Every structure is written in structure tokens, then in C-alpha cells.
From TrEMBL:
PANTHER family: CELL DIVISION PROTEIN FTSA, CELL DIVISION PROTEIN FTSA-RELATED. HAMAP family: FtsA. The lineage of its organism: Bacteria, Pseudomonadati, Pseudomonadota, Alphaproteobacteria, Rhodobacterales. This is Cell division protein FtsA. One of its GO terms (cellular component) is cell division site. Cell division protein that is involved in the assembly of the Z ring. May serve as a membrane anchor for the Z ring.
Length: 442
């Protein structure tokens, strides 16, 4: 506990070195696909010049991009080192070839790892009356540190609010005059084994890990508009093996979670229900899948194929109604898990309860209608904002996390803060209080 932010300091130093060289790669390691962007950092302003939401803002441009089918990744975590290494090497080399440069550092996403979210607070008395960098470090280290559990390092640590005496809602208190400095901190921990496996496979590809970002957080950065981040919204990133959840308020992430269910489970249900190969099931899901039944679905045959050489088996057909009957129960199960996670986070206390769906699973026809019914709130499908130079083919909802990684590379929210002061162990606070201290302070 005495060195809880050691990983933040290491990643911050590596990322600074990578950005100063001018090139960095971002890698979205998902269960269904692996995508890579090679970014060129333009010298807009020095990296690390600011603090907060625009900290270290440097203009980035995509100069290389590639994507391939994922291998060796299950439920958002590395399951096969050799297969995952081959897939990552393939996509990184393709992106480097397009960019015409070689990169040594990557910022990767983690969609699994069973993240846990905590709302913390700390207080510090200013001795000389003016807030200095050391005072910011002191108040961050004074935040009540919960028992994270064995082998659960910190993935994110976001200062979401500073208050100086009676003034709250400060983004950067340095240089201001006051006596009592308080801070609200949002902390996300993840399983150490999942992080080490990701770092190991990246190292086997002759690359150095310059940062790890929760896939749900990255998708939220890309898909939520400014008003949604300000008033309160949740981004649900429906990936292949896991569904990431991130809740935003006042332009900060205040909760993160992950559900080990995704589009791959829908594909597997189709494969087992119709007795066809998973590749064929995935194609049928993308082309004929849906969630809302109509009167003509019984009259829409779907050729199942097979390629076995047995005419009776290869000529089998199913109706779209049968397909919907397989797809809908699994999607409803995923949405029920999402609703339970949002209820646990206190989502119903936010001023605005907008839910934005991203990821490949969100593109199933009828998803937003069913999600609004199950979640009981407003739902829309989110498309990520464009990063300069990103190809159109890699800018849909299924690439929201990849786009968000590019935005994070330009504006890292947490690692620019000074974590040099040793952390002190304090009693834990409940997750439900994440919303409470937001409302009481702001």
C-alpha cells in the first residue's frame, strides 16, 4: 500500500519518452478483433504542460492503421500467448508499413481484468497559504485508500474534483491561495494477472508498454458528447468477449465495470442452436440477425450451408424468426447484467441518465430499442468522434475503444499528476458514495 501509485509513475515516464520521440502506437486488444493506430504527435505544445482534462494536450494524427481478427484472447484477457503474439505482430507490422515508421511503444486497452471502482477523498492543510505541487501530491496521497485485495494494482486514478476552503469544482488548484485543500479521487483497480499477461505478450512482440487503459473508459472518451459527459451518461461498450461500462459526470469518469459477456456468446448460441460452424454463425448474425420480430420473419429463409459434402445437411434452412429466438435471450441477459451494474453504481442518481451503446454488439438491428426497454432509460448508439487521419473503415461503433485510445494518448487524464508522495492506508469507502460526494461537492 505504501507505493500504490508506482505503476502510474512508471507508465507516465515511458509515455513521456514515447511522445517526445514523436510516434506512438495504440492497440485495442479485443476478443473479436485487434486494431492498431500509429500516431504522430505534432508539436502543438510541450507534453505535460498542463494538468487536468487538457493535460499534456498534443495534437495527434493517425498515419498508420490496421485491424485483424483476434486470436488468443478470451473474455477480454490473454488466453493464448503464442496466438495473441502472432495477431498483435500482424496488426502492428501492417500499421507500421502504412505509416512508414517503426514504433517501439504502445498504449493498449484492457477489456477484461474484472475492474473495480472506488470513490475516495482526501484533505490537506496548506502551510504557506499558496497551493504548490507538493500540496497536490500530499492531498492525493491522503485519499482514503480501500483494501484493493491481493494482486490488484491501480489501473486508473482520476482526481475528479478539488476544493480549496469554500470553493469547489476546481480543475487545477496550483497557485491559488487557501488553507484547506480537499480532493475527490476516482480509482480503478484490475486483476494483476490480466495486466501482466497483456504486458508480457506486448514485450514478446518487441514492444514496450507505455500505458494500459480500460476499454470501457476509452470507448466513453470517444463516443460521449460533451453535454453527456457533463450531465451524466454511461457508455456500454459491447465487445466480443466482454462488455465494458463507464459512467461519466462533470466530464470525468466516476465508475468503471466489466461484464464477461459479449457478442461472441451470441455467436456461440447461434452456432449451437442451428448446428453450424462459428464462422458461418458470425456471418449470419451480422447479415440477418435482429432483435425485433416482425410478421414476415417466418417467411424469410436463411441458408445455413455447411460445406460438408452432405447435400441434406448443406441445404438446410432456418427462418429469421428462429434466429431472433436464439439471439434475443442472450442479448437480454447481457443487458440485465448491465442494468445491475448501473444500479450498483447509483446511476439513477445522475442528473441525466443517458446510455450510449458502442462496440460491435451494439450494431445488431433493434439493439437500442431493446436496451431502452431493459435499462429503463434513454439509449442511443454512439459513433466515435473522428481522429485526424483515421480511415473511414475503422471509425464505426466497433472501433470506439481504439479511437478513445488515440484521444487518451493526446490527453492522459491521470498519469500527468504527481504521485511521488507515498500513499497512506485508510479505511475503505463504499462504491455507492461515488455519486454522493459528487452531488455534495458540486
Amino acid at each position: 500500500m505504501s507505493d500504490i501509485y508506482a505503476r502510474q509513475r512508471q507508465m507516465r515516464a515511458v509515455r513521456r519518452a514515447a511522445l517526445q520521440r514523436g510516434y506512438v502506437a495504440i492497440l485495442d486488444v479485443g476478443s473479436s478483433k485487434i486494431g492498431c493506430f500509429v500516431l504522430r504527435v505534432d508539436d502543438a505544445e510541450p507534453v505535460g504542460a498542463g494538468v487536468g482534462r487538457m493535460a499534456g494536450h498534443g495534437r495527434v494524427r493517425v498515419i498508420g492503421a490496421a485491424a485483424t481478427r483476434s486470436r488468443g484472447v478470451r473474455l477480454g484477457e490473454i488466453a493464448g500467448m503464442t496466438e495473441a503474439e502472432r495477431a498483435i505482430r500482424t496488426v502492428v507490422q501492417s500499421a507500421q508499413k502504412m505509416a512508414g515508421v517503426r514504433v517501439d511503444h504502445v498504449i493498449a486497452s484492457l477489456s477484461g481484468g474484472a475492474p473495480r471502482s472506488y470513490g475516495l477523498s482526501g484533505e490537506h492543510v496548506i502551510e504557506d497559504g499558496t497551493v504548490e505541487e507538493g500540496d497536490v501530491a500530499a492531498v492525493l496521497s491522503a485519499c482514503e485508500m480501500p483494501p484493493l485485495g491481493e494482486d490488484r494494482p491501480v489501473l486508473h486514478a482520476h482526481p475528479v474534483n478539488f476544493a480549496l476552503d469554500h470553493r469547489s469544482g476546481l480543475a487545477d488548484p496550483r497557485g491559488q491561495v487557501g488553507r484547506r485543500l480537499t480532493c475527490d479521487l476516482h480509482l480503478v483497480s484490475a486483476e494483476g494477472a490480466a495486466l501482466r499477461n497483456l504486458a508480457s505478450v506486448v514485450k514478446r512482440c518487441d514492444l514496450e508498454l507505455a500505458g494500459v487503459v480500460s476499454a470501457g473508459y476509452a470507448a466513453g472518451l470517444a463516443a460521449l458528447v460533451e453535454d453527456e459527459k457533463e450531465l451524466g451518461a454511461a457508455c456500454v461498450d459491447m465487445g466480443g468477449g466482454a462488455t465494458g461500462i463507464s459512467v461519466f459526470l462533470r466530464k470525468h469518469m466516476i465508475h468503471a465495470d466489466s461484464i464477461p459477456l459479449g457478442g461472441r456468446h451470441v455467436t456461440r448460441d447461434i452456432s449451437q442452436g442451428l448446428q453450424i460452424a462459428e464462422e458461418r454463425a458470425e456471418r449470419i448474425k451480422c447479415l440477418q440477425g435482429g432483435l425485433q420480430a416482425t410478421g414476415k420473419d417466418d417467411r424469410e429463409p436463411i441458408a445455413l450451408g455447411g460445406g460438408t459434402g452432405d447435400w441434406d445437411r448443406d441445404s438446410r434452412q432456418a427462418t429469421r424468426a428462429e434466429l431472433i429466438g436464439i439471439v434475443r435471450p442472450r442479448v437480454e441477459e447481457i443487458l440485465e447484467e448491465v442494468r445491475a451494474a448501473l444500479d450498483a453504481a447509483g446511476f439513477d442518481h445522475l442528473p441525466n441518465q443517458q446510455v450510449v451503446l458502442t462496440g460491435g454488439g451494439s450494431e445488431i438491428p433493434g439493439m437500442t430499442t431493446l436496451a431502452a426497454r431493459v435499462l429503463g432509460t434513454q439509449v442511443r448508439q454512439g459513433r466515435p468522434m473522428r481522429v485526424r487521419g483515421a480511415p473511414e473503415t475503422l471509425s464505426g461503433p466497433s472501433f470506439a475503444a481504439l479511437t478513445g485510445l488515440g484521444l487518451f494518448a493526446a490527453e492522459p487524464q491521470d498519469e500527468w499528476w504527481d504521485f511521488e508522495a507515498a500513499a497512506t492506508t485508510f479505511p475503505a469507502r463504499s462504491l455507492r458514495r461515488a455519486i454522493q460526494w459528487m452531488r455534495s461537492n458540486w
